[in-house]
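Q: Convert this sequence to structure tokens.
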Amino acid sequence: QAQLVESGGGLVQAGGSLRLSCAASGLTFGSYAMAWYRQAPGKEREFVASINWSGSMTSYAESVKGRFTISRDNVKNTMYLQMNSLKSEDTAVYYCNKGHDWGQGTQVTVSS
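A:
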């Protein structure tokens, strides 16, 4: 069974940066596309970004395009989300995803 563990969340001021990590185990990490989702209080979980198995193709939600960068290291079995120019509306729990598998989430709070 796949295990996905997020880390790197925290409290940051608006305009700041954070890098999230998702460490994967129990799967052939380099064979799968991966994604980041987020869920703000009182809102539905929403797509943030995705990356194909090799890292050659990425996709972003319009709300984060140009500010966030998704990447992966298939040797370290880890996916990343570099978040720059953070806004208060980026405050949410961020989740790592592979198909039906989800991590426990990491809280990102952006203060204005």
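The chain is about 0% helix and 55% strand.
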